[in-house]
Amino acid sequence: MKKSLMALGTALMLGGTATAQKVTFEEFDLDNGLHVVLHQDNSAPVVITSVMYHVGAKDEQPNRTGFAHFFEHLLFEGTKNIGKGEWFKLVTANGGNNNANTTDDRTYYYEVFPSNNLELAIWMESERLMHPVIDQKGVDTQNEVVKEEKRLRVDNQPYGNLIKAVKENMFKVHPYKWTTIGEMEHLDAATLEEFLAFNKKFYVPNNAVLVIAGQFDKAQAKEWVKKYFSPIPKGAPVTRQKVEEAPITKEFKATWQDPNIQIPMLVASYRTPSMKTRDARVLDMISAYLSDGKSSKLYKKIVDDKKMALQIGAFNYSQEDYGMYLIYGLPMGENTTESILKEIDEEIVKMQNELISEKDFQKLQNKFESNYVSNNASVEGIADNLATYYMLYGDINLINTEIDIYRSITREEIRDIAKKYLNSNQRMILDYVPAKDKAQN
């Protein structure tokens, strides 16, 4: 009884925290199609101005991969009114910082400034959209930057090509089959006209959401947004063809050789549904149950107790159209990838046939409550979440309600979703091995 009361108290405490974290926001559209979201937070004198464009690696051509990520770099080169190399100087001189990132589904830019520099931030993002300078000199400069990034973060990094190895085998027709950073020969072969066309197609106000979050005056912010963004002409509607993959009905194998590793890695990969689905959220909980932390089932069994692996992990790689559920392990000593897979499969089968314990289930619920609070704990996190839920999920209020989906997931659902997606006939087994001749695939 005492334990039950303690558990109830914990749940109420976490629930109260989550409710207190409710995010308020205001939305409106400009005539050119730009969606604007305002979130006021006066707890600190800072303001975040961010723009998310609905363009990522999946919007590229098979022989021109890497364009979306390339633009993440290219659009810091300068604009009609911001000289080449002056962007970062302007930001730092005014007490700010900025960055950008790209995924298969979207590109995200943001600035963090003292709150008295909001107009500067709005103007700079409008400049990026309205007056970018895209010339051959800038393309050549950023081409070298991207090549160096690929060498550093991918080609010369142990297991750096893991996601590439998985994606190109898991997807046969969908553009998720290539990586966000793309292939350097595609960027080398691209013409300036192709870069200009990509910008004209995707970098338009009706393919973007602007989020302002932090300490600011709403009326003034709206005035500046309209002043700087309204003159930007609306672009042609961005249309996307829906590409569907045939279901995986038979286990298949693939191999990748990496010259930077000495220990082979086992990877089991299952194709999963869009991150917008309830099933994807259940898979999030399954991955936490299996491998989140040293007390998780796979880690405790395979790494701690049996000492068969140096590392073990599982994660739900969720995306807008599809996801992948990956389980990986690094064998230790005389153990093999096959023996690790056997142990993994035993845990999955157990989960498919038995309900997880009430104790483990409560632990999961507490973990996701905590994640919810921490994800909205900073103004930067809230800005990112508002843009993501609006752009990729089509429901901005998920910033407040997605936690209710996780709260409503049952032990029975965890069992049933494991049974639905994590079967041996629905997966690829990848042998990620040291390169014999030091030549990469």
From TrEMBL:
Gene3D superfamilies in alphabetical order: Metalloenzyme, LuxS/M16 peptidase-like (3.30.830.10)
Similarity comment: Belongs to the peptidase M16 family.
Protein name, per record: Putative Zn-dependent peptidase
Signal peptide residue numbers: 1-20
Keywords: Hydrolase, Metalloprotease, Protease, Signal, Zinc
Pfam families: Peptidase_M16, Peptidase_M16_C
Domain Peptidase M16 C-terminal: 190-367
Transmembrane segments: none
Xref: PANTHER family: NARDILYSIN, PROTEIN YHJJ
A GO biological process held by the record: proteolysis
UniProt entry tagged with the keyword Protease: yes
SUPFAM superfamilies documented for this protein: LuxS/MPP-like metallohydrolase
GO terms for MF: metal ion binding; metallopeptidase activity
Annotated Peptidase M16 N-terminal domain residues: 36-180
